[in-house]
Amino acid sequence: MGTTGIPGKVTQGSQTKGGIGESTLRPDGTLKVTGEFAYSSDMWHEDMLWGHILRSTTAHAEIVSIDTGEALATPGVYAVLTYDDLPTAVKNYGLEIKDTPVLAHGKVRHHGEPVACIAADHPETARRAAAKIKVEYRELPVITDEASATAPDAVLVHEGRTDHHAGHVPHPNIVHRQPIVRGDAEEAAKKADFVVKGEYTFGMQDQAFLGPESGLAVPAEDGGVDLYVATQWLHSDLGQIAPVLGLPEDKVRMTLSGVGGAFGGREDLSMQIHVCLLALRTGKPVKIVYNRFESFFGHVHRHPAKLYYEHGATRDGKLTHMKCRIVLDGGAYASASPAVVGNASSLAVGPYVLDDVDIEAIALYSNNPPCGAMRGFGAVQACFAYEAQMDKLADKLGMDRVEFRQLNAMEQGTIMPTGQPVDSPAPVAELLRRVKAMPLPPERQWESSEGADVRQLPGGLSNTSHGEGVVRGIGYAVGIKNVGFSEGFDDYSTARVRMEVVGGEPVATVHTAMAEVGQGGVTVHAQIARTELGVTQVTIHPANTQVGSAGSTSASRQTYVTGGAVKNACELVREKVLDLGRRKLGTYHPAWATAELLLEGGKVVTDGGEVLADLVDVLEGESVEVEEEWRHRPTEAFDLRTGQGNGHVQYSFAAHRAVVEVDTELGLVKVVELACAQDVGKALNPLSVIGQIQGGTTQGLGVAVMEEIVVDPKTAKVRNPSFTDYLIPTILDTPTIPVDVLELADDHAPYGLRGIGEAPTLSSTPAVLAAIRNATGLELDRTPVRPEHLTGTGPQA
User: Fold this and answer.
1) For residue range 225-256, what is the model confidence (pLDDT) as tens digits?
2) Distance CA 177, CA 338 (A)
3) Residues 441 and 502 grouped into a single domain
4) 765 and 724 in a common domain
């Protein structure tokens, strides 16, 4: 890893071991590697029942009747619930638009929609009982694409829409529409010496987290319920669950359990309401654990997309204009589609200077699986298209592809298509320079004196090739991703920090509702506390709803926002501890009043390093606690006609160079290397930063060459809901991922940091496609690339 340091003042207590800037190991790392970590699926309770959900076998149909009698009569079954058994008038939920029924009512809108839920004394009993529920369906026409969704005689996925987006969309089967218009793209197009157009298809990707959805609900004596669950946003879940249960929020107590990955797939509810309903109905603890098949139907996926782009450029390589139309398929329910539309449209230009643009992005309602949040959140689909366009234009101009990008790269001060100035470093050209300068891997690595190492060849251990017909290709891409919630959302987090003496040693306790989903937030929070409070021992309290909201673990926002809240709370605690020291120990030293006082290594010291007091003496018999909210600077909604507005709070940037080897006869691809250069602002934990970049890069690789949920276009049924048929990269597919980290501070952010985890997912996919195009000379305008696309037997050859 290469790093570039940033100048600036050393923070309070920065000499304490394990603080900001160190590669502190994760406290949950060893437990996860050894299999000792307790995930939510491992939870157990005495006298526990097992829950199960019956799902629809068709994608769009009226429900004529549901007969639960035989299921209820099954020995060991305690409850069977349908829509009519829901306890309150609130029977729908949703992140923004509450259009999702807890259990299907009147009709089902997608394959796998929950229809009934069952509680029994054994999981297999619950499954057998579910199979005995008789549901009669009357099939309806399916909506599967834009043509069928917006046809004059189209069946409406949701009749009688009244949500706040309904008034500005051209058809009820469009969830949301966002245009972005700046300058005059039509007039600017006349100045173009070269114009390229492209139509791109992006496949539906699954988050493929390792721990399927699970939770345990325990009914309480006060009539409430305690829910232990793997989620990304405790307080959002709470706000959707409590109204359906008919309980005040303080009687639905939620505690985060071990989360086996998320990537956006746990931002929506899955089994949370069902398990609570069953627990309250039976009066017994109930646990639900999805198997992998159920998980494919139980959470949202990445929006598949059609993208239509036009770019122009002058002979000297300057971009003149851009027009694009992005059609995202949101599936049966809205989920996060409106926000994904906002991201896709506002970032559709990419990290380039363009004054004349005409952009439109929409999300459809359809009978395909619901889609919502996934790492990169709309910007991934756009990056795939605009980076392919950059290569096409560079080739048409006869320019080097990287130099063409650098010539048009944005920088600090660039005005975005939304009219918002970029007011922090935007080192796009430098990231491209760095990634291009990284050493290339040796060619023909499979060759050795002992014969071919098939693991290094396309096809790998399948032993399909020994190097015949293998061609190397190199491709580049760069992307821009917003950080945090945008468009006027009140994005804040809360932290409670306490300092006290425990066992003769000063200890800090940090309590937030942040969902640790594998991103390493608990490690960073402890580092912040050590840095700001100068103590070694930091306890991270389990996340629950007994503290204020931390927002979602998504949008690369948690270190920025919840880290900011922890930092602010620690600063207030520090001042209270110093005031306590002044009162308890007296101003016996003039430095108490005249010097800048720090907490470092369990001591109160002056800024010159002179020790004034021991923290144990200051805190003995006392505790200091602060709960503090922290907000980043405000954003605003985009204008619904022009798309203008300061909609984003921060941007992050990453560039990739992909090196691939392609067997052009068999259509097999081996990604040899995916080098990345990324600006992170400040690497709070360098080891975790590298892990985030490599993880995001690997997910981008997956959607480039193997990952896609395949939906039958005639029936809207999912064809491959298992890891047998939905392929994700294994260790044998994952290439070398060298990382060059640049640290250019954003003065608006805590410690100057930038969100990290999403940006590398953007540019890794188009870099791989660019490299395959470079090796084969084929257009390849869709993801993922399959063997038939490379051998002349598929539609994208």
Assistant:
1) 999 999 999 999 999 999 999 999 999 999 99
2) 8
3) no
4) yes
